[in-house]
Fold this sequence. Notes:
Layout: E1 6-10, H1 15-31, E2 34-41, H2 48-53, H3 64-82, E3 87-94, H4 99-108, E4 113-117, H5 124-129, H6 133-139, E5 144-147, E6 161-165, H7 170-186, E7 189-196, H8 204-209, H9 212-228, H10 232-235, E8 241-246, H11 249-259, E9 264-269, H12 271-276, H13 283-290, E10 295-299
Parallel strand pairs: 1-2, 1-4, 2-3, 4-5, 6-7, 6-9, 7-8, 9-10
Antiparallel strand pairs: 5-10
Helix pairs in contact: 4-6, 11-13
Amino acid sequence: MIEIPRILCPIDFSVTSRQAWNHARAIAGWYGSTLTALYVCHRGNATEAQLQSTQLPVPLELSDADRQQLAAAFSPWLQAATSVGVTAEARFDVGLSPAGPILEHAKTLPASLIVMGTHGRGGFERLMLGSVAEKVLRKADCPVLTVPAPATGATIPPYKRILCPIDFSPSSLAALRFAFSMAKESDALLTVLHVLDWPTHADLFDARFDTPEFRREFERSTRHRIDTLISEDVRTWCDPAAVIRYGKAYVAILELADEEHIDLIVMGVRGRLAVNLMLFGSTTNQVVRQASCPVLTLKQ
Length: 300
């Protein structure tokens, strides 16, 4: 099973970052991780006086009074973690945008997992299209768990229903291994989904191959491929359900997540070049944007 020695959780003291902290704290408890909370003071959360006294591109500075105030604000967050046996610490940093410091701290810790909210003080669209979540998801070397706002129906761990879409690429197989471990830690039901993105237009190819016989054979061979990925060790504590659907991958993922009341989606992203496209119309982008539950993404 996987190991997660260090978790980084960027927070801005919003309700959504509290939700992300709860998820990070639960995962840290399962894996015996050290949990690091990071607050980045940047121009988006600076006071009016700070903005007037600071000229771009000079970054903001934290005074001793600022650090004392932040330490006091962090205290109940850290106590919530340490009270359940999780080793936790707080870090502060400054920057013109949170993304740079988040990535730098993730690298230097080094973080095995980043847990962050998608609906922060700046709003989801701003985060995803701006410089924060987009850059973290695109550039982080470690897996990233994005947690949507509580209003969208995200649940507090443990995860009892986990969905792992796979396309048999190396990244999706890495995601499946991660999903196995998460399912074991939280004693969850695991659904493995494969989607055939079948063309919607009718042509000779469709007429020749889109037949009941073809679909039965495709489903049989796909289930066999999924079965070969499930080791005997996994079968001793989990009986993953294999689901096969047709259509747009992100639509099928989101529909099944709603139907099965999924608590967590674990999915792989294909390498750095593919990640660059992630936030501009790809399957991962659509799932992260629209899912009502947390989404864990990782690349191989």
